[in-house]
Write a structure and sequence with these properties.
The complex is a heterodimer of chains A (288) and B (284).
Chain A (H helix, E strand, L loop, with lengths): L1 H35 L7 H6 L3 E2 L6 E2 L2 H32 L2 H16 L2 H19 L8 H25 L3 H9 L4 H12 L1 H17 L2 H6 L17 H8 L8 H32 L1
Antiparallel strand pairs in A: 1-2
Chain B lengths: L1 H21 L3 E6 L4 H14 L4 E5 L3 H10 L4 E4 L5 H9 L4 E15 L7 E3 H8 L17 E5 L4 H11 L15 E3 L2 H10 L3 E6 L8 E2 L1 E3 L11 H5 L6 E9 L4 H11 L1 H9 L3 E2 L3
Parallel strand pairs in B: 1-2, 1-3, 5-10, 6-7, 6-8
Antiparallel strand pairs in B: 3-11, 4-8, 4-9, 4-11, 4-12
Helix pairs in contact in B: 9-10
Classes of the chains: A mainly alpha (288), B alpha/beta (284).
Chain lengths: 288, 284
Amino acid sequence: MRKFKEFIIEKLILICGLASVFFVILIFLFLLKEGMSIFKTVNPAKFLFGKNWYPISEPGQFGILPLISGSLLVTLGAAIISIPIGVACAIYIAEVAPLKIKEILKAGIELLAAIPSVVLGFIGMVTLVPWVKNIFHLPTGLTALSGSIMLAFMAMPTIVSIAEDALYSVPKSYKEGALALGATHWQTIWRVMLPAGSSGILAAVMLGIGRVIGETMAVMMITGNAALIPHSILQPVRTLTATIAAEMGEAVVGSEHYFALFAIGIVLFVISFMINVSADLFLHRERQ
Amino acid sequence: MFKKGLFLAIAVLFLNNAFAASGRNSIQIKGSDTMVNLGQAWAEKYTEKNPAEFVAVTGGGSGTGLSSLISGTCDIAMSSRNIKDKEIALAKQKGINPYEIKVALDGLAVVVNPKNPVSKLTIGQLAQIFTGKINNWKEVGGQDAKIVILSREVNSGTHVYFKEHVLRRGDPNSKEEFAPSALLLSSSQAIADEVANNPLAIGYYGMGYISAKQKPILVAGDEKSEYIAPTIENVVSGKYPISRPLFLYTNGEPAGLVKKFVDFILSKEGQDIVLATDFVPINK
């Protein structure tokens, strides 16, 4: 009887484990099936490198270069802001902070991760957007920079908590050895701890970026959604995710527009897949 | 404990289904953001009179409403544009027969910040501004600064109407588009807020959204004609050049509960609500 129970539980867990892989494959196949239909009528090169996105015109123009560049620009901006702050924060928490402050900081960062993105977007819209507009004397504050700043807040919790783990898992003997050789605290962190934890920190950065590129609601609310190729970070942009979210409701099922949105989904999937794989590679390198 | 919870959840699920299937005492309405406030007002008044019935109103855009009607997830679609031939064909395919009911008129106001000295424009100038051919306020008599164009997202009936009737001047062969630099905002309220805060912005929306924080532009058909303000009288008399009908679409001729609701909308009481929410009643 006990054996039978074990058997059932084992198989149940096996099914749960397989289910997640199964679902990913199903989702990808569905995405592929729907998205590839657009290439029957639109040339793939024209789709990826076309400069005009007018999906509801007759005939529609489906060039997603402005959307890709918008997504990349916002992500790049968010990375530039969040990586130094996030890594520095992780170093402080892992190496410098006294126990009490450490606990408070960790709780604060977890809280930051718990704020829903629509709330961050709303706060950004009423506070950050007018601020960006006034500081840079822009015609409008709905720009890529506003989106980057807001997204940096969202990437921070991921970067900080994973990078902190990476630093924590550096063997104690490294640190003790460095200190015994007469290195100062800072020298130890900079020359020993950071290089030793570098692959984990890189993985943290990659996962943070992965979070940023897939974010939708906040960017849709504060980046202005103008589909043009940006020349500076102070211009409005339209991201891949915001385009899907804003237009999916309208797209007539089975139309060119509908397939084009799924094709955008494939592009996004490929981008975040690459980011996740490279994060994985870094993590594995660390273990070896 | 856990089993009990699960059982409860399943029971609730079944009950829900039962209600949806048998208890036809609710109406789902979905569609045009322009009409959401109007739909809400109708629903409130209607449920006040018929407390046993339940009317749910959601926005999302005309396209969203029509595609829900086609996929059978709502009873009435609100739309600020006519249904497209493509959509009719698709509906027929799915066994849905869209039936059009004209319920109100709407004047489309073009608005700027009250600090902006520009107060009147012709349709031609509007077309040039929104397509990006005029990109500085000084070309239309304002200060020397870049124009910030605000538009609704592409799922909006207002977006489509403005493109067809202002940018393309009603010419079906025209290829004019909104300038790529136009900011696409997700609701009329977002446009109202941005215009209220930004002296360089110009946007458009149904005239129900005009408040003291925005200045409606007087619009003329061409340079020789009179510049007209977007007011209810001017829309009724047909003098204001950018006005459009608002529709409800149902599956086939309305029957039962839906018919009762539509009749209420077309009654004097329903049309008074139209007026109270700053739209223009029909049957005048």
